[in-house]
Structure formats: structure tokens, C-alpha cells
Amino acid sequence: LLTPFAPYKEYILKKVRYVLDILIEGKPLKEVHPFCRITESPFSFYRENQRVEGVFDLLLFFENKIHIIDYKLTHPRSLSTKELMEAFHYDEQGKLYKEAIQNIFPSMKDRIEMHFIFLRNEVHYVL
After folding, report:
1. Virtual CA dihedral for 17, 88, 26, 61, nearest 10 degrees?
2. Tens of pLDDT along 60-97?
3. What contacts 3, CB < 8 A, 6 or more positions away?
4. Distant-in-sequence, close-in-space partners of 53: CB < 8 Å, separation ≥ 6
5. What count of Cα atoms within 13 Å lies in the side-chain half-sphere of residue 117?
6. pLDDT at 1 (0 to 100)
7. What is the mean pLDDT of the chain?
8. How far is CA 6 from the centre of its chain?
9. Distance CA 85, CA 9 (A)
10. CATH architecture of 33-126
């Protein structure tokens, strides 16, 4: 069966393997129990009288920490990860995502970690 993605099969599998092997709390992502994961979870909250909405790509719940994972598909090769974070305001996005989680789980305020995973260059950046 031919699909439009057939020519990219190996590339896609390589990226999937990369993500599954990323270590969170000393464990590869592929070993995190399904009950500790929530995928594609929408959120909304009010900040300065404005509604903020978004979708978490992946949330991981550990005993003492919540990890927010956001996948990025683009990564201009001419920019370093730090430059990319600033140019595309991903640092601000990360702060908003953390704030959303703080609103839901106020007791975890200081135990939230934001991860950006740049698939193209296989970079894992923790904010």
C-alpha cells in the first residue's frame, strides 16, 4: 500500500525513536506508564482579563513533578536553539504553559518543568 508518507518512512521512524528515547526523570519516554501521560490536552485560563487558550502536546505526571512536553517541527538551521527560542517567542509560550498548569495544580507551582523537543534537529531544550 502506497501512501504519501512512504518516501519518508525511515525519516519519520528515526524521529519517533529519538522522542521515545528522551530521558525524563531518568526514564526514557517510552517507559513512562500510560497512566502518567496525557496527550493533546486543551487548556484555557484568564490572564489580565484576556482568555489564553492552547493545547499541551504531552503532560507527564511524576510523584513530585509535572513535565510539559511541546514538540516543534521547524528549526531553521541558521539559528541556535537559544536564538530560536527568542525569535519565535517559545520562551513566552513555555511561561504561559507553566502558568496554565499552575492554575490547575497550584500546589505544584515550583515543580513544573517545560520541555521543547525540536524534531528536525533532534534537540531537547528544557526551559
Report:
1. -100
2. 999 999 999 999 987 777 888 899 899 999 999 999 99
3. none
4. 42, 43, 44
5. 21
6. 47
7. 92
8. 26
9. 29
10. Alpha-Beta Complex (3.90)
